[in-house]
Amino acid sequence: MKYQEKKVIFLIFFALISFSAFGQDGKSLPASKWAQSFENYLFNLGSVSGKFTQLDKFGKVLKGNFWSNGKGSIKFSYIPQSELIIVIKDGLISVKEFDEGPVSQYSIKDSPISSLFSKDFSLEKFLINKIVIQGNIGTIELRTKKNSSRNSVFLTGDYPNPQLRQWKLIDTQNNETTVFFSKIEKFSFLDENFFTIN
Description:
By secondary structure, the chain is α+β, with helices and mostly antiparallel strands. It has a single domain, classed as Lipoprotein localisation LolA/LolB/LppX (outer membrane lipoprotein receptor (LolB), chain A, Clam), CATH 2.50.20.10. About 15% of the residues lie in helices and about 40% in strands. It has an 11-stranded antiparallel sheet with strand order 6-5-4-3-2-1-11-10-9-8-7, with helices on one face. The radius of gyration is 19 Å and the shape is globular.
């Protein structure tokens, strides 16, 4: 191999390492500091809407739109319309299948997602089991109980400048659900009744 080819390969390798370690803006950030900035990002997010793609443990993919009022209420409307609606509000998750179907409710008061998009969200309320930084992506694993991986939430966002990309939930029945977020945009106002299903 010629000297010039070796030099080019070395430069590419070095660039990839640098890109992975320092992120897009070339600045490194300790994992704990990044986690704090992620918390601040969620705290200041306010009212937002966007798209989501959901993947369950069986590999089933569902898509739809979501809204959050910045006060802990989140609504997921699945496509096709009127097939499934899920609302997180006041420590409860409400699920309604089809327009005329009944509403099922479950308590999630001890889960991080009950306050994720609100000013009540704080990392200090939960056990931070680990923080992993891989290239331009960081993930925080939050648990409610140290001795159990059930009822855990993995929050994933951009590194070093956080923006929510996905969450992975492991509930008390050990079911795993991953939700990918995209096209997150702020909006001005939604009536609180929008986050009520009956």
